[in-house]
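QA checklist item 7 of 12: single-chain prediction sanity check.
[x] sequence parsed
[x] length recorded as 228
[x] structure emitted
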Amino acid sequence: MITFHVITLFPESLLSYLEASIVRRAGEKGLIAVKCYNPRDYVVLPKGKKANYADRRVDNRPYGGGPGMVIEAMPVVKAIEDAVGKKLKTAASKKKVKILFFSPGGKQFSNVAADSFKGYSDIVLISGRYEGIDARVNKIFKTEALSVGPYTLTGGELPAMIVIDAVTRRLPGALGHDSSIEELRIASSDVYTRPEMIEYKGKKYKVPKILLTGHHAKIDEWKLKGKK
């Protein structure tokens, strides 16, 4: 089983997706688990003081000036420690832990990367916000920077869900049929289902005849042409 540990200020933003479709079923089958850790819960308060929202703020002004706010290091460090700290104490268990943070300048995420992540027991996904997270977090844990595309997002929650989905669907038993993994089968970008013909605004749209022949070799050849 792979446990995904998501470090996020907005855990509620992941809930609806995690409770849907393949990801939810994979969790029910015991193939994955997803746990969220809010850095606000790891702010150290004076003894006996009851926390209010201001006390649980984790963002602060950046050294050197600049716009926006930066998430402080220690609440994130403590969240990661809570998630996988025990497993980082021995060399053997540490090898099974992957700690990622999201950055447009990071290594491009791909199916190859998703495949490689299947070998880990614990994957920590650090989801930044605002102007980012204090860089000392990455130095402490020697994290790996990952990018889900050449663009900037408001936070790391969407990238975290992308990684969870892409890795999960590649686990044996996650899909109805393991052959459903796209790059392991012959597939076309164009797919069709019943009925054989539909009509819209007076024009008829039919399924390509080759798909109705039952000639699998020719159908595969047609699909391969469609992928080029």
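[x] summary fact logged: The longest helix spans residues 73-84.
[ ] second reviewer sign-off
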